[in-house]
Amino acid sequence: MVERVALVTGGGSGIGRQICLALAAQGRKVAAADVNAAGAAETAALVAAAGGVGIGVTVDVTSLDSVHDGHLQVTDELGPVEILVNCAGWDILMPFLDTDEDFWDKVIEINYKGVLRTVHTVLPSMIEGGWGRIVNISSDAARVGSSLEAVYSGAKGGVISFTKTIAREVARKGITANVVCPGPTATPLLDGIVEASADGEKVIGAMARAVPMKRVGQPHEVASGVAYFASEEAGFITGQTLSVSGGLTMS
User: Fold this and answer.
1) Which of 51, 66, 96, 165 is 20–30 Å from 154 (CA)?
2) pTM (2 decimals)?
C-alpha cells in the first residue's frame, strides 16, 4: 500500500476514530481532526499504539480559518493531504416545527458547510498532486428521510449532491469523490441525540427495528466502507453513494 496522508474530520470519537484506525491499518499517515482536542489526541495515540503514524489536530469545521490552519499543520507535519474524509456531524432529534433558524444554521454549518470548507481547502493540493480520495459521510436519513431529523436529512442530502458534482469536476484529475451513508450507528453522537431528546430512546428503538438486521451498526463497519473508497484499488469508482445500514436502504 502506498503511504499517503489522510485527514479525517470528526476523528476524535465514534465513526471518525474507527476510520482513522482503518486508514492507518492501510499504511496511511492519519490526522485526526476534531473540535475536541483531547479526543483527537486520544485517536492519534490509538493509531500510534497500533503501529501507525497519527497526529491530533484541533479543527472547527464551522470556521474556514480553523480549517485552513488545521490543513497547514497536517501538511507541515505529515505532508500533502491526499485522502480527505469528512465525518464531523451534529444533530438533535426534534419535530421540524419545534426548530428555529439558529438550529438550522448550526446543523447546516457543521453537516454541510463544514464539508464545503474542507473540500475547498484541500482539493487544490490534490489537483496539483494528480491523486486524491474524498469520502464524505452523509446518512441514510438523507436517502430515505428520517422523522425528527428534517434539517439534518436535508443537509446530508446536500452532501450527496455536492459530492457527485465534485466527482464530475475532478474526474480527469486522478481524484475520486464518494459518499458513505451510515444507518443508525452506536456512536457518542447517537448517545447525545438520545439524551437531548424527550423521546430519544423510543425513536432509536424504532430506527433499529426498521433495519432488516434488527440492530444498529458499529463504527468499524462504517469505517470499512470508507477505507475501500480511499484505497488505491477504488480508482475507477467515483460519484457513488454506499449505504452501510444493515439493509435499511437498498438501492
Assistant:
1) 66
2) 0.94
